[in-house]
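Look at one such:
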Amino acid sequence: MHIGSTNGSAKILLVEDNPGDVRLTREALREGKILNELSVVEDGVEALAFLRREGRYAEAVKPDLILLDLNLPKKDGREVLQEIKGDGALKKIPVVVLTTSRAEEDILRAYGLHANCSMTKPVDFLRCAEVMRASEPCWFPIVPLPSGERQ
């Protein structure tokens, strides 16, 4: 059971503007039998509103893990990461940066902005399922948010 959640499922926020990648992630989580609640937002502005519980996200629950695409509309993923890690109320949430780039500069910059992990986006369903299954035991039992952190 996941310590940080009330019903044993991990709460994941996926920040992704590509509907195909959203579908792939949902299928991979389902295929990997990872117990979770997945929320999806499509741009950086929406991600920060969700995390800060603003506007239509006033009832949003703080996620246990953020999967963050770097190339987003409205507010770039790098800017979102910087704001998350600079916000005392959000900085403890693990952020996994997802990118199609294999450039060392992009990876180093993500870690420089305090990403907890950087992964190259899988290009097919089987690889995506493999990545999600591999991520689950790492993030959820080992680095959950303390119960008192959840809003």
Notes: Confidence is low (pLDDT under 50) at residues 1-6, 141-151. The beta strands are 10-15, 36-41, 65-69, 95-99, 117-120. The helical segments are 19-31, 44-51, 77-85, 104-112, 125-139. The first strand starts at residue 10 and ends at 15.
